[in-house]
Amino acid sequence: MEKSIESTMRLWHLSQRNVPRGLDVIEDAIIRAKDEAAARVIASNTSLDEGPEVWMDEELSTCNRLIYSGDPDVILQSGPGF
Q1: I want to staple 43 with a disulfide (CB 3.0 to 4.6 A). Which of 3, 55, 57, 60 is the partner?
Q2: What is the widest separation between alpha-carbon atoms in the chain?
Q3: Is the pLDDT of residue 17 over 60?
Q4: Are 36 and 50 in contact (CB under 8 A)?
Q5: Does residue 77 register a pLDDT over 80?
Q6: pTM to 2 decimals?
Q7: Positive/negative CA dihedral, 40, 11, 60, 47
Q8: What pLDDT is stored for residue 44 in this prediction?
Q9: Is 25 in contact with 19 (CB distance < 8 Å)?
Q10: Alpha-carbon distances, residue 11 vs 18, 49, 71 (angstroms)
Q11: Contact, 68 vs 43, CB < 8 A?
Q12: In 10 A of CB 50, how many CB atoms?
């Protein structure tokens, strides 16, 4: 029996701990990947001025798995006002 995409892939929320201001940086990302390590690599490969090392280092960024269950809610809000 073939596995569904939902059983092999997860959604991950990656966020910088200390966002540098005045640069072309990614502050947060929602990544689809099989595990945290893969999510960090994808984020690292798509980095901007913050540099790829930010997404690979647990001291510089967080990576949390988003769960599918729960009440309807906002998944991500991002920008200067947040």
Answers
A1: 55
A2: 51
A3: yes
A4: no
A5: no
A6: 0.78
A7: positive
A8: 97
A9: yes
A10: 22, 24, 17
A11: no
A12: 20
Residue matched to tokens 């984020």 = 43
Instruction: Assess contact for 51 and 44: CB atoms under 8 A.
Output: no
9: DSSP letter: -
With CA atoms as reference, report the closest residue to 12 among 75, 81, 78: 75
Contact 16, 61 (CB under 8 A): yes
Res 75 pLDDT > 90: no
The CA-atom distances, in angstroms, between 15 and each of 39, 59, 69, 71 are 12, 11, 21, 23
Does residue 71 surpass a pLDDT of 90? no
pLDDT at 74: 81
Per-residue tokens: 47: 């980095």
